[in-house]
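Incident log, structure service

09:12 report received: a user says their structure output differs between two submissions of the same chain.
09:20 pulled the input from the user's history:
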Amino acid sequence: MRKIITEIKWRGLILNKTNGLSYILNRKVSMYSGFDPTYSSLHIGNLMSIILSIHFKNYGHKVLFLLGTSTSLIGDPSGKKGERSLIKRHDLCLYYRQIRQQLFKFSNQFNIPILNNNWNNKIKLIDFSRKIGKCFSINYMLNKDSVKKRLRSISFTEFTYPLLQAYDFYYLYQKQQCVLQIGGSDQWGNITCGIELIKNKTQTKVHGLTHPLLTKSDGTKFGKTDNGDNIWLDPKLTSPYKFYQFWINRSDVQAKQLIKIFTFSNKRAIYKLITLHDRAPCLRILQRKIAKATTILVHSKNTFTDIYHLNNLLFNPKITNLNTYFRPKDFFLLKQYIPCKTIRLNSTPLKVKILDLLILDNFICQSKTEVLRKMKVNSLLLNMKTFFSDYVITKKDLIDHHFIIIKKGKKNFYLLYFK
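09:34 re-ran on a clean worker, output below:
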């Protein structure tokens, strides 16, 4: 059992851990990872916690997923620059169902039960203050990073969040014999609150482990309430094609780290892939491996097969005639996986200025100025060909009598469906 620490350490999945954790993992233990449904979907930052949980499960430990419905009503101050907006209970019910459905895919495949921390709803304020609040000094709480960084602005509501999460750990220790909580590095303060509470109430030492945070291009963490350029697990928020392309477009340096975190290939196989990649970086062997593994894990093998086929179509440099290159079933996949806009035609012949088409509803470009700027550097293609600003779209431009493909930049594709 102890080998789990060696396994996840070389993968880069450990940032902090309590002393003695390696020793208790000599035997089978119960542990959990929590997810607050503060939005309608999990993101790839959450996927790291899920993958870490799966590693523990594969090594024989009992793993639980905890959905924090009650703690979501308070809001975790960790990693936040300002006060959260409180979630409406109606929205919380919706988010709970959606995220539970996402977790169920992993729960069902790896036999990981999903719990809900609605036990907090039964605690009375006076009882909570006496039984839980009494175990923490104000000085202890003020030394938490989530409090210290926002000392002048944090509300009492968010100030209580670490205590509520601590109570979750205490409850699961009593009811499920959980002796380990895992999470992202921003959860270390909350996890240690739980460790302190259990020590105070039972004189028992329990443990915590955190993994590094996955960060966005601007260096900030992926977060459910900071939408930005998040990569979501929900295919309605991030299409499976965009999800796949995210991994394909990682740098070589990133890929060498991510291949260890987001795949379950063993150490020997991964270092062999890194060696092959270094011999021919242009083939993007690592990026393709990560994209395949994550797309299958989050979506499905069939979805990956469809996207792989589309990718080979859209990025084939040998394209000459799209009418002979694309088959009708390919357009079905394109409509499903890349941004598509339906344009209804009247009975008059099709004649649309390309500039008007590209800024229609801001679907592809925001203004004619943007269109002209991108045209100068050949950053806009009509059916994979360059065009002039005065070009007029007619029926002869339609592929399979209905479609036009616009390529924007190096990797963004849009489908126009004339109906």
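09:41 both user submissions now match this output. Likely a transient worker issue. Closing.
09:42 reviewer note: The first strand starts at residue 16 and ends at 17. The CA atoms of residues 29 and 205 lie 13 Å apart.
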